[in-house]
Write the structure tokens for this entry.
Amino acid sequence: MNRFEGKSLSWELKDGVIELALHREPCNEIGSLTLEELERFVAALERMADGAHALILHSKMKAGFSAGADLRELYHRAQAMERSAAAAGVRDYLERIHRVMNSIDASPLTTIAAVHGVTFGGGFELALVCDLIIADKMARFCFPELRLGLIPGFGGIPRLKRDLGNAVVRDLLLTGRSLNATKAQAVGLVSQVVAEDQALRVARSTAGQLGKFDRRTSVAAKQFIKPIPYEDLRREIDLFCELFLQPAVEEGLRRFVESTDAQPYLP
Amino acid sequence: MTASEQTLDQILTLAATHFKVPRERLAPDDDFFKTLGIDSLQALDLLTKLENHFKVELPDYELQGVSDFRTLADRIQSRL
């Protein structure tokens, strides 16, 4: 399927470039619906790959690329189940989202995340599977999970560790602070910082350039330089599931869901 | 005008422009969440605008509990 219009995302293959647009209100929170549509996408991606050289991920939502996992859904589902069933459900969800992330990470296409605004948690992790991140100067990156008593669960830390120095990873993970696009470029996370609302345009221009190269060479170069940290990713799932059973998590999620604080996103 | 006052003035002007409110409606001791009618995500937008303008880095946790322009200006001034 070269074209799809879903409730949380859409994609289209055109002139060798696949564009995957996220468009779930309010800021592309990744819950069960988005996961199902992402699974449809990666199944279609395998079929589309022969006719494409690049994939661009972007958001149509004004607030940003993605605010990450749908914490409200996670909390309400967990509340409706026994603890053991909730833990099993979380593990199943993580296994599925990791398969999606790994598929995009390992795709033979050159992949670009065109991001703006909030790029937090699972949204940040989705951007991290891409080969290049092109950021609007209003983009912000953050792993706020520790304030919930958790670690990032969609593969963020192993992938960040793959791409950046360990000190930067510790700073982001342990303080939960957000970085702006300029800082993210300075530490090597972002390849290009562009003016407001220009990330998608520049990503398209970059994708056009990528189309000039021999595909087999591009695929070989990507495989050579971008190993997928499968072992650490597996350990991340185990650690997340272990932490998820701690009482602090339920309390952290409840605080977030019930918060009337004007600053719930500020760690 | 002192350096701190200049910083505060620039913050008020930037906030007014970004959120499209008349500059004269904003006062240094206003609660910017209320005066600008913004939520936490929009507050992050403001933070990014200010970081880009002043070329500073301001960790979000330094803004915990900060809701008026004057204190915000103090936090930024301490990084200049």
